[in-house]
Inverse folding.
């Protein structure tokens, strides 16, 4: 692909967005990784709860009068939908958004509130994309691509400008990747203005389309994607975005579901920030040393905060387990009076808070006179869990 994006267009986008998008200042340094100086670019504080407003608004602002009259159509897992809806409504343009039927209800309702018509499509993002293309061809709408469009990429690149303006000596920037529009814009901008800065991309382990494509040296389409980071659950990267990543991104890594959950929890507890899974993958990569940032002044782009509250409790629970704050002990003990009291005493003396106790007498994994105890406890960290197990073992309790 012949590159057509110029850095001047990113500056032009910044001017257009000056009074439209928020420009959240960097937060930090944080304690998210003690070996690096981690700062956060909190795009979850954007008007629509995600960075997507930038690219969508700039693209729509550049439409011709004829294109405006026909209206716009877009497909989205949720965040781009809200950006397009807000941008179209502010510019007096009709908008129709195709969303995956499984998109969080909060994102669907927010899109409607911002003035768009919504078409729910069975399947995932890629299915919504196909439907949007069909409707575009049928009605003559202008398609606002969520990532594979140079003007959208230029809009997202304004985040790179803001990072450099606020922190000229930044050494590394970590960016979430779905289709790749965000990292394409940020990496292009940073490498034009500060070529020595490292740019790292992060995908969910269950949706590694750009990760696989970069390894293979060509765009690859995944058969399926599955992750709590619904905002980056994309089966195939874009043509433009793959090219930009090939040119400007230093490395792409993946993070697990548990690591994503732990990073969401850390942002809530330590920074009082609510991030969705897609927005937290950059922090997960920093927390779990997926990228070489030791000793470096690093910015993690927290790209969105539109997490569905119905799954937030489950995510927090997973995060507690991953970070050693919650653990279930499985104990094989004799079924005799006083046994449970003794075990509870040991746990209490070691500072564990018991949440629940399950007593199984008829397990085929125990002796006839034995039973299995499952005790869920609140703990401080993984070292605390190890200490509990040792204290129980020292008292003659068999920890399974």
């Amino acid at each position: 692909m012949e590159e057509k994006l110029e850095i001047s267009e990113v500056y032009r986008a910044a001017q257009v967005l000056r009074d439209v998008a928020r420009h959240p200042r960097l937060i930090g340094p944080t304690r998210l990784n003690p070996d690096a100086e981690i700062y956060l670019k909190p795009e979850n504080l954007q008007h629509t709860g995600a960075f997507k407003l930038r690219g969508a608004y700039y693209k729509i602002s550049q439409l011709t009068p004829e294109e405006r009259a026909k209206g716009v159509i877009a497909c989205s897992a949720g965040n781009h939908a809200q950006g397009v809806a807000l941008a179209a409504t502010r510019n007096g343009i009709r908008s129709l958004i195709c969303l995956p039927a499984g998109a969080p209800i909060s994102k669907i309702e927010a899109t409607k509130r911002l003035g768009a018509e919504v078409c729910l499509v069975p399947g995932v993002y890629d299915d919504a994309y196909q439907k949007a293309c069909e409707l575009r061809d049928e009605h003559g709408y202008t398609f606002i691509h969520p990532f594979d469009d140079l003007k959208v990429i230029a809009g997202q690149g304004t985040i790179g400008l803001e990072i450099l303006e606020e922190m000229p000596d930044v050494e590394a920037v970590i960016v979430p990747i779905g289709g790749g529009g965000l990292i394409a814009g940020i990496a292009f901008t940073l490498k034009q203005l500060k070529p020595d800065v490292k740019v790292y991309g992060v995908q969910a382990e269950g949706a590694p389309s750009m990760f696989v494509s970069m390894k293979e040296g060509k765009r690859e389409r995944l058969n399926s994607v599955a992750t709590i980071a619904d905002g980056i659950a994309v089966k195939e990267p874009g043509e433009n975005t793959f090219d930009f990543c090939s040119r400007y991104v230093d490395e792409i890594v993946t993070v697990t579901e548990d690591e994503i959950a732990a990073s969401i929890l850390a942002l809530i507890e330590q920074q009082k920030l609510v991030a969705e899974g897609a927005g937290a993958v950059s922090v997960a990569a920093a927390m779990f040393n997926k990228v070489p940032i030791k000793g470096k002044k690093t910015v993690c782009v927290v790209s969105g905060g539109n997490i569905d509250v119905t799954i937030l409790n489950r995510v927090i629970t997973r995060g507690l387990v991953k970070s050693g704050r919650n653990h279930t002990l499985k104990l094989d003990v004799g079924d005799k009076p006083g046994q449970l009291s003794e075990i509870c005493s040991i746990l209490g003396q070691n500072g564990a808070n018991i949440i629940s106790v399950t007593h199984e007498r008829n397990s085929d994994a125990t002796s006839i006179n034995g039973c299995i105890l499952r005790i869920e406890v609140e703990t401080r960290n993984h070292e605390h869990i190890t200490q509990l197990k040792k204290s129980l073992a020292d008292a003659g309790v068999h920890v399974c």
